[in-house]
Amino acid sequence: MWIGVAIAIVGAFAASYFDVKTREIPNWLTLGMIATGLILSSIQIFYGAPWVLIVLPLALSFPLIWLMWRAGLFGGGDAKLLMGIVSLTPLFPDGSSFIPTFFLMIALSTFMQFFIFGVQEAIKRKDGKALVFALTPAGIACFVYFITHSFLISIFFLAIAADAASPFLPYRKKVEVSDEIRGEMLAETIGIRDGNIVRIAEKPSFLLKIFSRKDKLDEVIAAPSHTGISADDIKKLKVFCSEVYVFPSHPMAPAIFAALLIALLTGNIIPTR
After folding, report:
1. Residue-number span of the structural domain to which 64 is assigned
2. Do 189 and 148 fall within a single domain?
3. Cβ proximity of 242 and 176 under 8 Å
4. Is the pLDDT of residue 28 over 90?
5. In 3-state terms, what secondary structure has residue 198?
6. Where are the alpha helices (DSSP H) in the chain?
7. Is position 160 within any domain?
8. Distance (Å, whole) CA 243 – CA 174
9. 147 and 132 share a domain?
10. Domain match, 73 and 8 both
11. Once rounded to an integer, what is the mean pLDDT over residues 123-133?
12. Using an 8 Å Cβ cutoff, are 83 and 12 in contact?
């Protein structure tokens, strides 16, 4: 088990380095992690490890990761990195299931990613009003911990509050419509309603996305997609507008690496046996 954990840590660190330096995670790294992980998991089952705690979480996590990628939460390289990590570390060293705890940490980091980037941008812009919203989630988390004395519950409230505060932080940037924005994540839906161009901002809050009402358009020119802005989108956008808003792209691998370390340090917080 420790071999898989060690490879996962080294692999996630390497992926973070590549993601920050080149903005790409090489396939040889992630596919190698997946293959090695599946081999090690098979060996663990052969030598008596409870196959249910290995096979079932892997069978559920792979489609979940694919759905998260399709939802645009992260890129293809990040998805393969996640698959590599869960393949390498299906169990904690004590034999309990690692994957539920790891996905909890991934969910929390995903909830907070726009918040973290928004705080960085607010600091750069010296936006005092935005920084007040930035401090609110931390205050809520501290209050919850004071009431419950539960680190896990306070982290949950931190993630939820950070997600809710994200729209009040600078979370998007304006760029010129050109071939250079291909692959960028569009931060608005642009369409036509009653003969007029309509632009609907895409909120960075996952909770607001769930509860927000969908605006109807007669025709959609371009909308946010997990694959980013396509060449066809650019061709259509050039006809109707010269500038669009996009989400600033940030490397996700460091957040995944951090989630891995936190999960390993926290230990099994979700009883699975």
Report:
1. 2-105+251-266
2. no
3. yes
4. yes
5. strand
6. 2-22, 27-46, 52-70, 76-88, 99-125, 128-148, 151-165, 206-211, 231-240, 253-266
7. yes
8. 7
9. yes
10. yes
11. 77
12. no
Residue 22 lies in a domain: yes
Give pLDDT tens digits for 130-186.
777 778 888 888 898 889 887 777 877 888 888 888 888 877 888 999 988 888 888
Count the alpha carbons within 13 Å of 212 in the hemisphere toward its beta carbon.
15
For residues 237 and 175, is the Cβ–Cβ distance under 8 A? no
User: Burial code of 186-213, b = ≥16 C-beta within 10 A, e = fewer?
Assistant: bbbbbbeeeeeebeeebbbbbeeeeeee
Rounded CA separation 41/87 (Å):
7
**Is the whole model's pTM more than 0.90, yes or no?**
no
Exposed/middle/buried for residue 86 (C-beta within 10 Å: 0-12, 13-18, 19+):
buried
**54: closest CA among 65, 42, 63, 62?**
42
- 23 shares a domain with 11: yes
Query: Position of tokens 């420790």?
Result: 2
Overall number of domains in the chain: 3
> What CA–CA distance (Å, rounded) separates 118 from 131?
9
Q: How confident is the model at residue 273 (pLDDT cuts 50, 70, 90)?
A: very low
Residue position matching structure tokens 């919850």 = 144
Do 72 and 132 reside in the same domain of the chain?
Answer: no
What is the per-residue DSSP string for 86-142?
Answer: HHH-SB-TTSSB-HHHHHHHHHHHHHHHHHHHHHHHHHHHT-HHHHHHHHHHHHHHH
The position carrying tokens 């980037």 is 117
C-alpha to C-alpha distance for 145 and 152, rounded to whole angstroms:
9
Q: Report which of 117, 128, 135, 133 is spatially closest to residue 173, judged by C-alpha positions.
A: 117
